[in-house]
Amino acid sequence: MSKVKQVLTIAGSDSGGGAGIQADLKTFQERDVFGMSVITAVTAQNTLGVQGVHPIPLDMVENQWQSVISDFDVSAIKTGMLVNGDYMTLVAKLYRDYPHIPLVIDPVMIAKGGHSLMAEEAVRVMKETLAPLATVITPNIPEAEALTGLEIRNKDDMKQAAYQLKEMGVKNVVIKGGHSDDQNVSEDFLLLESGKEVWLSAERIETKDTHGTGCTFAACIAAELAKDQDVEQAVRVAKEFIQAAIKHGLAIGQGHGPTNHWAFRKEST
Fold this sequence. Notes:
The protein has one domain: Ribokinase (UDP-N-acetylmuramoyl-L-alanine:D-glutamate ligase, 3-Layer(aba) Sandwich), CATH 3.40.1190.20. Helices cover 38% and strands 22% of the residues. It has helices at residues 20-30, 58-69, 85-95, 120-130, 141-148, 155-167, 213-226, 231-247, 263-268, and strands at 6-14, 34-46, 49-55, 74-79, 103-105, 136-137, 172-175, 185-191, 197-203. Helix 2 packs parallel to helix 3, helix 3 packs parallel to helix 4 and helix 7 (213-226) packs antiparallel against helix 8.
């Protein structure tokens, strides 16, 4: 059996390379795990926004899954853009046969350019069918609001949303604070399966180049879980990884540019 940990991402393809499958695979590579993919949709996308979305037929999504799961020793799974409720239902059905594999869900809903990447009915399916299977779920504040129906304006609201998601069946919840009004720091709230509460704080960096941050953060958590890190440590590493990726921007594109996936490695050497 290979000693190299193997991690699967189920998500959309970003032609601009900053988010989705591309961001996940870059993150896996940087965290020393081997990445595989199940592509749910092909997007025409750049730093200015999403110009088009072409969903991959459901049977082809399932074929990709079967190809990967039948051959590779998958140690963690991360989901991103799942198009609509039908795709979520399929992923939930496929995953239920492998509950021993950690599942990290990034409930992708809105792209940085404002384009909706998740149909409204999919929010219901996410809440009722897929989220309860998650080892870790990583919504930002707008996504957490959509999933819980709460209005999140402060840290107490973030905690309330996390507890509500936990009541849905999610084992561990990270509410990301990047959309908060705090101009100095970005604080994430981690609610662990044990009930332990952890606040993770990082300096807020003034930049427009944050495309793919959610994908990258969740992918890093999945990579760390694959290497048998506990959830708290995995989230702490992911927070440091994405902070470095944002801090050392690449200044690519004319809009919301991508983050720097190799920055954490450079900082660590």
